[in-house]
Amino acid sequence: MVEDKFKVDVAKVVKNNYKKKKKKLKKPILTPGVKIFLIVLLLPISITVYSLVVFAWGGISNLPFIQNFSQSEVEKIQSEFDLQIPEEYIPIYISAANTYSVPWTLLAAHHRVETRFSTMKSLVSPVGAEGHMQFMPCTFVGWSHPTCSNLGEGDIPESEKTNPQTIKKYGGYGVDANGDGVADPFDIEDAIYSAANYLSRAGASEGELKKAIFNYNHSDKYVEDILFYYHQYEEVSDDLVQTVFYSK
Fold first, then answer.
1. Predicted pLDDT of residue 65
2. What's the average model confidence in pLDDT over 202-218?
3. Which of 10, 158, 187, 207 has its Cα between 20 and 30 A from that of 233?
4. What are phi and psi of 181, to 5 degrees?
């Protein structure tokens, strides 16, 4: 009897708990149909608001005080330039310039004119100049290479094009700047050091900038363009060096 009564009591407790839980369950505030309606209604509104915000920011971001707030110090210094010198290249220019006794701003000017700071779609020109600083293969490896003639494209095997020993043998200007055993015109450090090497030996280290620039590319217009950017960069050189090396 006691056992039966215990079973009955347990059953009542379970039943009562079930009823209490059932009472606590409430109907959803929004039915599925209403939810779908709201999604359909709010989606175009959200898209419209987003578009307005993007459009408004496009106008606001052009305001001078907004641009000054978002620009880095290096960008502010170059705010009047048509194409700014990428900050990450400045230490490479300076290091190469110190090694070969040429102005770092001259290297930056060549980089600007040759490949727009390496932003061109292809780093190989129609006549065969290669890499960040646009070296003809025979200039990079050396004109005494048996395949070199005419404009200097040559028929140099790929294994020889970047071999420092081959370059030394044939008197080229290619430099293995980062010490990885390869002198590669498509490596930014190697390319800039190689350009510094060439310009230095062409007279830039003695102050003969025009002569060196003309040797790099036999064009009076080229010399004019390089000197334009060189003088532009010279005007802010000290500020850029101070910002890049001492203001962080």
1. 46
2. 98
3. 187
4. 85, 5
User: What is the distance between the alpha carbons of residues 195 and 184, in angstroms, rounded to a whole number?
Assistant: 12
Q: Whole-angstrom distance between the N-terminal and C-terminal Cα of the chain? A: 88
Whether 60 contacts 66, CB under 8 Å: yes
Tell me, what amino acid is at 217? Answer: N
**Helix axis angle, 220-246 relative to 209-216, nearest 10°?**
110
Residue 144 CB partners (closer than 8 Å, separation 6+) = 170, 171
> Nearest 5°: phi and psi at 214?
-65, -35
Give the burial string for 96-112 (b: 16+ CB within 10 Å, else e).
bbeebebbbbbbbbbbb
3 state DSSP class of 105: helix
pLDDT, tens only, 51-94: 775 565 555 545 554 444 447 899 999 999 999 999 999 999 99
Res 208 pLDDT > 90: yes
Report residue 163 as tokens.
Answer: 């071999």
Predicted confidence (pLDDT) per residue in 31-44, tens digit? 777 767 777 777 77
Q: Give the pair of three-digit tokens for residue 58.
A: 């496009």
Side chain identity, residue 18: Y
Residue 70: predicted pLDDT: 47
Q: Where are the alpha helices (DSSP H) in the chain?
A: 2-24, 32-60, 64-70, 73-77, 90-100, 104-115, 137-141, 158-161, 164-170, 188-201, 209-216, 220-246
In this structure, what DSSP letter does residue 157 have?
-
Contact 186, 158 (CB under 8 A): no
In this structure, what are the phi and psi dihedrals at residue 169, rounded to the nearest 5 degrees?
-60, -40
> In this structure, what token pair is assigned to residue 201?
């030996």
